[in-house]
Amino acid sequence: MYVNERHFQIAGVLHQIPAACEFVARAAVQAGLDEHAVYHCQLAVDEACTNIVEHGYELRGDNHVIDVVCREDAVRFTILILDDAPAFNPLTLPEPDPTASLDARGSGGWGIHFIRKFMDEVSYSRDYHRNCLTLSKFKLTA
Length: 142
What we know:
Elements: E1 4-12, H1 17-30, H2 35-56, E2 61-72, E3 76-83, H3 110-118, E4 121-127, E5 130-138
Antiparallel strand pairs: 1-2, 2-3, 3-5, 4-5
Helix pairs in contact: 1-2, 2-3
């Protein structure tokens, strides 16, 4: 059971993404996350939403929305990012090789790599013709 749930919606355009990041930051602070964890949540949301706008909506998301839902329970803070872009599970991308030379590194897959590093749990589902990326950060217990 969730203690608190907050909803926010933005148009699927790049200039709306900072508002989603600020919404998540406020919710994370209210959930009791420390400054470091709040920052990780912001970075993850920025990266996920940017990928949706650039790749899912191909920078033509004016008539699309991205829903951001923040949920809190006793042990975790969870962010759901929902969009109606074509189905795409970013977790199926191969892990990039950070040890490869710069010339050998591909340009794709780095965003989800960082999201996985920033967050404690990351999952994907496709429900009702919408992509749902779920990002969780565990709360520190005393």
